[in-house]
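Help! Submission page says 'invalid entity' but I think these are all valid:
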Amino acid sequence: MHATKRVLLSLAAASVISALPAAAQNKSTLEVVKQRGQVICGVNVGLGGFSLPDSQGKWAGLDVDMCAAVAAAVLGDATKTKFVPLSAQQRFTALQSGEIDMLVRNSTVTLERDAGLGIQFTGINFYDGQGFMVAKKSSVKKLAELADATICVAQGTTHEFNMAGYFRSRNLAIKPVVYENQEQMYQAFFGGRCDAMTQDSSALASALATRNKQADYTVLPELISKEPLGPFVRRGDDVWAAVVRWSLYAMMEGEEKGVTKANVDEQLKSSDPLVLRLLGVKEGNGKALGLDEKWAYNIIKQVGNYSESFERNVGMESPLKLQRGINALWTKGGLMYPLPLR
Amino acid sequence: MAALSRTVLAFALVLFALPAAAQKTLDAVKKRGELVCGVTGTVPGFSFFNAVQEWEGLDVELCRAVAAATLGSSSKVKFVRLTPQRRFEALAAGEVDMLASNATFTLQREAGLSLQIAVVNFYDGQAFVVPKSLGVKNLAALSGSGICVTAGTTHEDNLAGWFRARRLDYVPIVLLSQEAMYEAFFASRCAAVTEDSASLALAIVRRGVAADYFMLPEIISKEPLGPYVRRGDEAWLDIVRWTQYAMVEAEELEVTSANVDEQLRSNDPAVQRLLGVRAGNGKALGLDEKWAFNIVSQVGNYSESYERNVGMNSPLKFARGINALWNKGGLMYAPPMR
């Protein structure tokens, strides 16, 4: 017992020393990643649309693209990534200990996570939240049209509570049909028991994709609760936090400026000063971040802009068929607002 | 065993990290018993020393909210006037605890100047003003009209880009200076005038003609404004960021300065967490659990502050536009406070 403990402690001490360069010696993860030639990302073990390995072991998803974008920005090559699948219990410890460089694992940004735990959030790459699914033949397009509808919901969840509050505050009556668990709710809904069903929108889309029923059902674009998901880095490494944050913003800015994987080379000759700055033709952004001036060009060329990544992974070109909703650009009714890249 | 050593390791690292991320600014503010806030001081609606010798404005109230959160009193603030040329240097040198000075967030400011963006408290950008008598309510309705703009500015490019993208026509009336542009507009040489919204509001208020003009709700460029803090002080960064979010969350949950005492008895778990009835948020931030209660009780929620300083209860009369809550068509979105 005593011996075991000593071994354990010396192991821990050794790990601390080896992990120190990455995490505690004021050496930014940016330097570590450049030296190693690879970005190590913590991801979900398997969540369709966000991070999922295919039969060849190649990872794909919105979170995976975020990681690839950082590799393109820092190393000039979006494939220089390593994905570490992590459970919900493991994820934050893995980041704190320096085992991974960043965590992109559909993790909700909350106050206690941002302020505690030795980690910090860098941005939001997907606004999730409680959504509603309806049959396409019902031709319901918005939540207000669910007045007097029967809605399947799982018992004792915040979903039940949120739904009651949402409709009550709008003076709309609904008929909740409550199930003991999520699986029973799915069965009942797909068995035609309710006009609508409610859950987090990504879970609804995933349920639809798993059952291959995208042709008959759809997730409405409105969300009634907040589950903003985004990448986390270690607290205190502001240089690295900036690299991750602006990589995400570069993808959004690419969309806002109409710069795509396909046209990025032409866009190098754009007359728009904001496009020229984004792509590094006008220098400055790269230097400020400690990156090559081609950093954002490399992201868009190799990974695509935010819209391309969204549609391919969770949107209309994917099995999930999620609409943009609040994940649209700010100019199109959504919340995606890249801060100015200048 | 692997899992156990990982736990030990994480614990060790947290201990190591503490001195580096020392709660420098928070400790200094508590010890001093006063928050020192850098402001512009000359922008009505944002930070302005008014005729009765009081500070007022959206940025001023954010400083007051941080004082309420950290010291329990929104009046424990000293305001320091800083020019745009001096402000970042003053923050970096530790002369002020935070900057709330109409500074646009940009990549090169955040990544280059040893500063950190805390949060956006006002999405500014290029806007349009029309005479009320024109009866126009949105930008598309200006199709075919004359629009005054200053030559050689990004405003000129943005204006052209917005109308071209929508295949709408307009008549650019290009003036050589901002002053000439406003003169032309107020002499009715064009149907509308375009500039950043704060500049437009100032021009109207200065001429005492606020009652006769209307700002259209569309903002067509990005000038996100908000507080800056020093890099490397995450504990302080979090406090400033979540102070703004607490004001936004209070608006979303309909907790106001008038009803906040009643709301202590709310059965909504989100309200209980916000107001510290359920503990946790205060501890995570290193603050009293009443921190957000004090903000709302003494300063108000974001909507109250907005309407009083730049909105309908102010001379500026800004519509909420993109500064509305996320579930009302705007961009104001507080991540969950739990």
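Support: the input was valid. A stray whitespace character was the problem, and the output above is from the cleaned input. Chain A touches chain B through 61 residues (CB under 8 Å).
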